[in-house]
Hints:
The chain is mainly α. Helices cover 65% and strands 3% of the residues. Helix 1 (3-33) packs across helix 3 (61-75), helix 8 packs antiparallel against helix 15 and helix 8 (169-192) runs parallel beside helix 21 (487-500). The protein is globular and about 70 Å long.
Amino acid sequence: MNKEETFEQFTEKLEEIFHLRSAIAVLSWDQEVFMPQKGIESRAKTISNLSGFLHQKFTSSDFEKTILKVKKFYDKKILADEEACIFKEVWRDFEREKKLPLSFVKELSRVCSEGQNIWAKAKEKSDFKIFLPSLKKIIELKRKEAQLVGYNKNPYDAMLDIYEPYATTEEVSLVFDELKKFLLPFLRKIKKSKVKISSEKLNGKFPLKKQIEFNKFIAEKLGFDFEAGRLDESVHPFSTSFNPMDVRMTTRYSEKNLISSIMGTIHESGHSIYEQGLSADKFGTPLGESISTGIHESQSRIWENMVGRSKFFWKFFYPILQKKFPDPFGKISFDSFYRAINKVESDFIRIEADEITYNLHIIIRFEIEKELLDGSIQAEDLPKIWNDKMKEYFGLKVPNDALGVLQDVHWSGGNIGYFPTYVLGNLYSAQLFEASKKDILNLEEKISAGQFGHFKEWLRKNIHVHGKMYSAGELIEKVTGEKLSSQYFINYIKEKYSKIYKI
Length: 503
Ligand code: CO
């Protein structure tokens, strides 16, 4: 078989895998959004069966034969650039899966699904000891996973690699340390500032129907295509995609807090606009897939924070908001509203934390995960380690495990290595936003006038359409002319919050 025929056979097989994946995504979306409670158990079985098929298909000898044929062409360097990228990315996943014995995969998946139930009970009772045996087992398995798949320097590299391909613990630690060095004293200055901000005034009574209407209006204005997607409601806001022509997102509504649903919608719109911007022609190959969890998060954060918490964004939307919801916004001045949506507060809980403290919440988790993996700390000491860090970073005394070490679901599901992608997303977003301002003339004025198209097109052209053609690091360098640096984010925070808090 010649190169063309072999490659065609390869992409046909890939497409089958992607269709199956797409079907699983539909079932999972339905489970989160619409499904009746009683169906959940059988749905979980359906999904787990289909996931088994997916794994079998991907690791089958039939698929292996085909990918090994392509590998020969790759090794001889006779694949075109795009073909080489497709092969390289699929090979990465394939090799990783092949290194993990089926018995290991099954055990990990069983321990994690039990782990999530046990974690939920432990959190309800606010008792870390209930979760400890399960967490120890999960960490043991993740350390084993790192050994099985291999790593260069740090076992944590093997965890990061799942979510942020090609990133290393060393480089992430470096940028995070720089960020921490800035954030800790800056946060102390904010605490000492005479400016005190309250966000209570934003609360009111907002009928659900009107909220949904307003959220859809914003998403559409930003550029989310409702003919290729939906916005629904779920307990935790999320986005998922079946293909670029069908992208689903959700937000959460509370009768008294409209702003929280809006911020959820803007964030998820960022994720979804990315998915809608992937190339539909490349569906079924890595060139039609997002780069990494961190780059995905950069797309949500750039819309939610750089744009959605800015003055220029609300110059356009605030008058509309005031007209639609005169109570309470008719009585709140623009400046007072702007300050309220940018209030900084040290709190115990990560989710819905502000732009500054959010990063410190993540850095705590990153530092802990790294040391759990290399064995320099032990799971039984976590509550103390956690509480000490909360005291050191935020000056807070954690009252109980539910508000402390037990607050997040991630570890119980085995998702170690996921947390740092939230901060990477913030850093990427600031660096990308600076580059977009250089490229788009008067970007901020355009947004104040309700013109979002230029910005969306810039993201599309520079990031979305490439799929996985470049790694996150390569893309950042290509688009911004520089390697990832925490400096852009630091400058953004310094400039914005020095003004708000008069420091
Ligand atoms: Co997100």
